[in-house]
Amino acid sequence: MTDDTRRTDGRGAAIDAEGVELTYADGTEAVKGIDLTVPEGEFFGFLGANGAGKTTTIKTFSTLLSPTAGSITVNGFDVRDEPRRVRETIGYMAQETSVDEELTARENIRFAARAYGVPKGERAERIDELLDLVDLADVGDKQAGEFSGGMKKRLDAATALVHDPPLVFLDEPTTGLDPKARNRLWEYFERINERGTTLFLTTQYLEEADQLCDRIAVIMGGEIVATGSPAELKRRVGGEILDVDVPAGEDARERAAEIAREGDVFDADADVAVTDDGISVTAERAREHGTDLLVALRDAGITVTGFNIRAPTLDDVFLAITGEELDSEERSADHDDVTGPEVTAE
Length: 346
Ligand code: ATP
Known about the structure:
Blueprint: E1 13-23, E2 29-39, E3 43-47, H1 54-61, E4 69-74, E5 77-78, H2 83-88, E6 90-93, H3 105-115, H4 120-133, H5 149-160, E7 167-171, H6 179-194, E8 198-203, H7 206-212, E9 215-220, E10 223-228, H8 230-237, E11 240-245, H9 252-262, E12 271-274, E13 278-283, H10 286-299, E14 306-310, H11 314-322, H12 328-331
Helix pairs in contact: 3-4, 3-5, 5-6, 8-11
The structure holds adenosine-5'-triphosphate.
Region (Disordered): 327-346
Pfam families: ABC_tran, DrrA1-3_C
Protein name: ABC-2 type transport system ATP-binding protein
């Protein structure tokens, strides 16, 4: 399925990785041979469940870990030969918020500007511009310790941009944020991407990848198992999806799945899965044959409490590709706008 991992559409490559492997000292093979090219200006999403290898990959691309095998060029610089040049040309927003709570928002950005060697004469203007960009201009002189989790994340993102890098890595930037805070960060990311900055985002939120990314790679067990635009990936799932709600108990869902598979209701290549609510059938012309299935289920004495026909979502793509659903508990965005370290809870 990985047919277009090396596509750049004639643009220069912000990231060019070939055969990248990373094995930790304890023998854990976290990354197992990744080939990937991210063209300049792209909003690229790296999607995977907990432990799939997203952070390890981002760390090898940003010189925090040295790959066990393979080669990586970032902004034209080899991560092994010219790690300093790589670091000068990237921004990195880690999972853990790195703002200093004792400092104001402005002081946090000023500190980063000094650390990144932004010329003194340019600093004040740059800081104002960044505070504005992340909607923190009004609270620029307030201590970061008073900020909500979402505000800290925005401040963190601003500091990652202080040296105006052409490429920014965002490692699960919205984990633990409530939907409102998440949406504001999304707007901000879209804004910096529109300015021409290449973004490499890791996420376990399917809707985040769907909404923001030009192209997505799905990583599973340290390997890329699919790459494409959200629309391309959805097309690969194909057909329509019929969700049928069946109450649990007495193997009702398993029996319903069996009927959907074995009866002559759908084409032979239909895909039937038992879900948290009942069963889900992916098939060409699911709409047309849906009522036949409902009749067959009724004849078998199986209660149906609801049904719905829809186009595939990225959730379906993920399920089809990996055979797993991303943990819905982890993906739910119903947390409060938490502060401090909880923002980065894994
Ligand atoms: P998460 O969403 O939990 O951050 P991830 O997709 O970023 O997951 P990684 O953190 O890259 O995944 O982890 C990939 C694999 O490597 C996991 O099995 C993890 O337990 C293991 N791992 C991560 N860091 C280390 C380490 N320092 N030493 C040994 N194994 C590690």
